[in-house]
Design brief:
single chain, alpha/beta, Immunoglobulin-like, Aminopeptidase, 2 domains, six-stranded mixed β-sheet, four-stranded antiparallel β-sheet, about 30% helix
């Protein structure tokens, strides 16, 4: 029978003690004093001082992430074992505490890549994790230094051998008639990370977080033969593809409101509602850069949009500022020269730090993406971005006050696709208690999605996209 890599040493037996009682007492005193001195001078990272503070698991179709957080840097080794597939991680100089022992309970049966996790003491001073896998994976294992509220982190990213194709997300688009009639999309497994609850705002009834958005009554769909095709005067003769980017996610919560609301949850909810509305249009379809609570690096968000040859990139956020009185909706586009205001510069710096908070393996570099993110010769795309930004901002002004009456510009990394017009929508200030309550209101989220869609349609009516044969064939 194959021996499991998770092994435990036999119990140590106490050696017999010889000599007189006085000698034993003296030796015991000296030994105890020496042990105490060793504890005082022991270096950080030893088993006596290092323990795991938190463990988190973020499952998604793109990849599953496991994060171990500690006060001190972790020393580790890892190896893949085949037949069956396992990832074995040895953690040196740590304690097997209750936090680490809780890791197996955080694995959901719906996790795409992990079957189960075992944790135990392998040998003195070494804790071994054995991750039983459902399929062959390509692991990325790396550490992150403390940032924000996080301490030292060891990150285990489990990627599939064959990455999911973002084009498949477009193939899930319902027909306009099905979407208009409220036909639900196929259900996706929920992540094992439970969405944290927040205190209910005064006077605001708590809603079931898993409740789907309300479906408004719609007229019965027309028979297939009578399906409406875009008229020539509508300005669009092919499917328009829009990449929707709900900001933050997973290890990166984004801004946190006074009542405990996470920006990552608000942006995902609005993104899903906007996608449903776009997919209900006969000549439009949408793709989400993330459709669950997991982290996506900034360059991968841009890469996903480019892989589906998106006509437009819309990043959705909930603003935050150092003052709780700041309020209003905003639209930003990329700037080649600098930010149009101090607030815009501060916001861009905060958003561009998302990779530091969420955690990116800086040892894995894509030269093409690096060139893309550094390319500032984007005049045409910026001009188009300003047009669509102005159209969307005008519609946002019908449902909320505007923070500024014009489109602002700043150097957002997520807007640097050189060939895709890109905008960043700040739906409202989650740092403002009144607007935080609105952002958690389903009716407001619906109005926000409707307003953004109206702005997009206004833009494409005046600026029809050019033909793209690859997209037209999908």
């Amino acid at each position: 029978m194959r021996r499991s890599p998770l092994t435990f040493p036999a119990r140590l037996t106490r050696p017999s003690i010889g000599g007189n009682a006085a000698g034993f007492t003296r030796r015991r005193f000296i030994g105890a004093a020496g042990a105490s001195l060793a504890l005082l001078v022991s270096r950080p990272g030893t088993a006596a001082q290092t323990g795991i503070l938190a463990v988190r698991v973020w499952p998604a179709q793109d990849y599953t992430r496991i994060t171990l957080e500690s006060r001190e840097p972790l020393t580790f080794t890892h190896q893949l074992v085949h037949g069956p597939e396992r990832l074995v991680v040895d953690l040196e100089g740590i304690e097997l505490n209750g936090v680490l022992q809780s890791l197996p309970t955080k694995i959901s049966g719906q996790d795409p890549y992990i079957q189960l996790i075992r944790a135990g003491r392998n040998r003195p001073g070494v804790v071994r994790l054995v991750i039983d896998l459902k399929a062959e994976i390509v692991p990325q294992v790396f550490t992150l230094k403390p940032v924000g509220e996080y301490g030292h982190r060891l990150v285990l990213d489990l990627y599939p051998v064959e990455p999911p194709d973002p084009l498949l997300a477009l193939l899930e688009k319902l027909s306009p008639e099905e979407a208009a009639a409220g036909v639900p999309m196929p259900a996706r497994p929920e992540p094992s990370s439970v969405r944290p609850t927040r205190p209910a705002e005064p006077g605001v009834a708590r809603r079931q977080e898993a409740e789907p958005p309300p479906v408004r009554p719609q007229p019965a769909p027309e028979p297939p033969a009578a399906r409406r095709k875009p008229a020539d005067d509508e300005g669009v003769s092919r499917l328009v593809t829009i990449a929707l980017d709900p900001g933050h996610g997973g290890e990166d919560p984004g801004a946190v409101g006074a009542a405990g609301s996470f920006e990552k949850h608000v942006t995902l909810s609005i993104g899903r509602r906007l996608k449903a509305r776009i997919d209900a249009e006969p000549n439009m379809r949408a793709m989400l850069t993330r459709d669950a609570d997991y982290f996506v690096p900034l360059q991968q968000r841009v890469s996903k949009a480019r892989r589906v040859q998106a006509d437009l990139f819309v990043s959705i956020h909930a603003d935050a500022f150092i003052s709780p009185t700041a309020r209003g909706s905003s639209v930003f586009v990329l700037s080649e020269r600098g930010a149009t205001s101090t607030a815009a510069r501060w916001l861009a710096q905060r958003e561009n730090a998302a990779d530091l908070i969420g955690g990116v393996n800086l040892g894995v570099k894509d030269e093409h993406l690096a060139r893309t993110l550094l390319d500032l010769s984007q005049t045409a795309s910026i001009n188009d971005s300003l047009k669509v930004g102005k159209a969307v901002l005008g519609e946002l002004g019908t449902i909320n006050r505007l923070h500024k009456g014009e489109v602002e510009q700043a150097s957002f990394a997520v807007l640097k696709a050189p060939d895709i017009p890109s905008i960043l929508v700040e739906t409202a200030f989650i740092s403002n208690p009144e607007e935080e309550a609105r952002l958690n209101d389903e009716a407001y989220q619906d109005r926000m999605a409707d307003a953004i869609l109206r702005g997009l349609k206004r833009y494409f009516a005046k600026n029809p996209p050019t033909a793209k044969s690859k997209l037209a064939s999908l």
